[in-house]
């Protein structure tokens, strides 16, 4: 199976641009973008952009999907269930391969799923649905990456505040979590499409490194040359706070729950302990925590 014509849905978000860039640089691929009409995202001028209404009408999807070998979805988690219609359209249009917006922590982990079913269950259901469409000729690959390292650190998702040089550390800070840089995620997706016979119909676990909150803090203090203010909190208290916020419709609780799941043992954060990574299969570079953090510090 050869995958040459690639369509990315949601290429203007946090993850989409790095996947678009990786594919665009490889002459093996012809890449285009599907964008909602309401989107204000701007793409490189040489990239073909298909714009359709936000409700993704099937007739328009079929027009855009026709002739595409693979569709990559990076749509927002809140819109996860929209992918069911995308999958149906892909089958009807003869698309060979579909990459769902699974990127992140291991949504199949039972403990993590029990805590955050609002976010995880829909993603699990999408992959289950993809499995039912294998008989129709549609293959799939789902990527488990852990937190996007660049964003997790730079935007404070994992408790680090660059502006004030403060950090929030769960428990003793030793809980380890697998994480992947955006550039490596883009490279992984691109390389997986080059070898579909080895990457189809499976979860692909990738990581740039496995770290703890304390390791990241120590590296940041060394790179910035200053001692950061540290607040140490009990993880279970933050989980309770996150659950309370979610129950009231406050989505900021999602950050607390994600951080808890990622850093608390047994919830799937350190997936490299239990799953064989596809780093070597996908020819991913070996990365260094200090070097990755140094690049972030220089951008701040």
TrEMBL record:
<keyword id="KW-0560">Oxidoreductase</keyword>
<keyword id="KW-0521">NADP</keyword>
<dbReference type="InterPro" id="IPR045312">
    <property type="entry name" value="PCBER-like"/>
</dbReference>
<feature type="domain" description="NmrA-like">
    <location>
        <begin position="5"/>
        <end position="238"/>
    </location>
</feature>
<dbReference type="InterPro" id="IPR051609">
    <property type="entry name" value="NmrA/Isoflavone_reductase-like"/>
</dbReference>
<dbReference type="InterPro" id="IPR008030">
    <property type="entry name" value="NmrA-like"/>
</dbReference>
<dbReference type="InterPro" id="IPR036291">
    <property type="entry name" value="NAD(P)-bd_dom_sf"/>
</dbReference>
<protein>
    <submittedName>
        <fullName>Isoflavone reductase family protein-like protein</fullName>
    </submittedName>
</protein>
<dbReference type="Pfam" id="PF05368">
    <property type="entry name" value="NmrA"/>
</dbReference>
<dbReference type="GO" id="GO:0016491">
    <property type="term" value="F:oxidoreductase activity"/>
</dbReference>
